[in-house]
Write a structure and sequence with these properties.
Strands 1-4-2-3 form a 4-stranded mixed beta sheet, covered by helices on one side. It has one domain: 60s Ribosomal Protein L30, Chain: A (2-Layer Sandwich), CATH 3.30.1330.40. By secondary structure, the chain is of the alpha+beta class. The longest helix has 18 residues.
């Protein structure tokens, strides 16, 4: 839901509210490492997809899914790849009612090969 007096964003909502009786689920920041510890070094699309898969796995462990997500926070080392990040993100989120979102450019992440880290907040119906 986007308030009409706010800037119309590309691919995210300006505001979301928690449905009555919902249970909140937070994920930790998920980095682009697969179950075997591999990282697709230098590949923005692959790293974004892996980080989002990891978010999905974390959500599922708490009984949540992408349809429950109302807030994403995305940390990146470079904003030049924003179109790639958005395209991959749209493979996961409901683009007809996208979650609120914050993108933060950082100097670096915990490992020098990581380009992106993503965390989510979900509201699971009670």
């Amino acid at each position: 839901m986007t308030e009409l007096s706010l800037f119309a964003p590309n691919g995210y909502s300006q505001v979301a509210s928690l449905p009555a009786g919902s249970r909140l689920v937070w994920t930790s920041g998920q980095v682009p490492v697969d179950a075997d510890g591999a990282v697709a070094v230098g590949d923005w699309a692959a790293q974004t997809r892996q980080a989002l898969r990891n978010v999905e796995t974390a959500l599922a462990a708490a009984g949540a899914g992408w349809g429950d997500v109302f807030k994403l926070t995305i940390y990146v080392t470079d904003v030049a790849e924003l179109p790639t990040i958005r395209a991959v993100r749209d493979e996961f989120v409901d683009t007809t009612r996208p979650p609120t979102s914050t993108l933060v450019r950082v100097a670096g992440l915990v490992h020098p090969d990581f380009l992106i880290e993503i965390e989510a907040v979900a509201a699971v119906p009670g």
